[in-house]
Specification:
single chain; 228 residues; mainly beta; Methylamine Dehydrogenase, Chain H; five-stranded antiparallel sheet; four-stranded antiparallel sheet; 3 helices; 17 strands; globular
Length: 228
Amino acid sequence: MIRNQLFRHGPAEPPGFDPSAVPNEPIDETRQVDGQEYYCRTVESPTGTWTLAFGRPTSGSESRLFRIQNGRIVDDRPVTRPTNGAIADDGTVAVVSGTDSTEIGSTLEVFGSGEPMFSRRFDATLGRPAIRPDGDLVAIATRPPASTMSLLDVFSSELRATHAVRGRTPRVLGFHGDDRYLYVGIGSGKEPYFGIDADGDVVWGCDRYQATRPLRDRVESAFETLRS
């Protein structure tokens, strides 16, 4: 029993996790905007009220980003090398932009209807962001060799938490369980690897995740569980 406790933290199953609620990948499509044709990637908010579209015109090179509410373009803006994005049910956007071939890194920008709420540069390649439906938290993962998952407060721009994901490629799986928990997977799968709460504390981890934790942490967790 004690050996099993060393490799497990919390319940056997991830609390509140819903595989059908994992955000879909952006869809590639062509859109007509003001008579101009754009090659876009689009993604919807959880309720489908808002759509985020970003891409380049077929006859030009400047990329633009569009916030669309109930099928109507609310606003748009220029954006440099957009690669991925997410949009909340209140219209708050998180977009990832890359760099040119001479630089390493990516930028995460978060904004609503006004000026950008914040912009943060990472010296690593970023994956797809996830934004909580109410728009107040955003999560992003960096790819190897420095694989980490970061949770940021949208309104203060402060970093709530960062977790290293050793030797694996993390993938943010969105907010689950009435949006209380953020789950992170690895690779391209939809199975959760670990989950954290809004404060950034790990609330669940699969056996593979637990095996990466220092032995001392696993022993302390085991005794805490046995005492409770």
